[in-house]
């Protein structure tokens, strides 16, 4: 599960769309990417549309300690994230 802060999300949307296309209230933390709520920047057959400018959480994902701890943890995360198969 990748988490983006509100500011990271706005910066990326501005970069890709040329304008802000999402309106999050100040109380919302940003975006959490899961299998049921996939990353809007992950394009089928293409990959990450913002790869060169992706946020820190995306740069290090999925190589986080909790997923590297065991093969089971890695495989469980693969079930949650279609992007790990690219």
Number of helices: 4
The first-to-last residue Cα distance is 16 Å
pLDDT averaged residue by residue: 74
Strand order of the largest sheet: 1-2
Q: Report the β-strand fraction as a percent range.
A: 5-15%
Give the SSE order as H and E letters. EHEEEHHH
Helical proportion, percent range? 25-40%
Oligomeric grouping of the chains: single chain
What is the general shape? globular
- Total DSSP E strands: 4
Q: How many discrete domains?
A: 1
Biggest pleated-sheet summary: 2 strands, antiparallel
Structural class: alpha+beta
- Unreliable segments (pLDDT under 50, ≥5 consecutive)? 19-27
The radius of gyration computed from the alpha-carbon positions, rounded to a whole number of angstroms, is 14 Å
Summarize this entry quickly.
The protein is an alpha+beta fold and 86 residues long.
Characteristic key phrases:
alpha+beta; 4 strands; single chain; two-stranded antiparallel ribbon; 86 residues; globular
């Amino acid at each position: 599960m990748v988490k983006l802060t509100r500011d990271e999300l706005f910066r990326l949307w501005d970069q890709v769309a040329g304008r802000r296309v999402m309106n999050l209230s100040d109380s919302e933390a940003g975006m959490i990417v899961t299998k049921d709520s996939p990353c809007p920047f992950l394009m089928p057959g293409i990959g990450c549309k913002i790869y060169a400018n992706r946020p820190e959480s995306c740069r290090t994902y999925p190589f986080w300690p909790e997923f590297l701890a065991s093969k089971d943890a890695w495989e469980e995360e693969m079930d949650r994230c279609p992007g790990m198969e690219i």
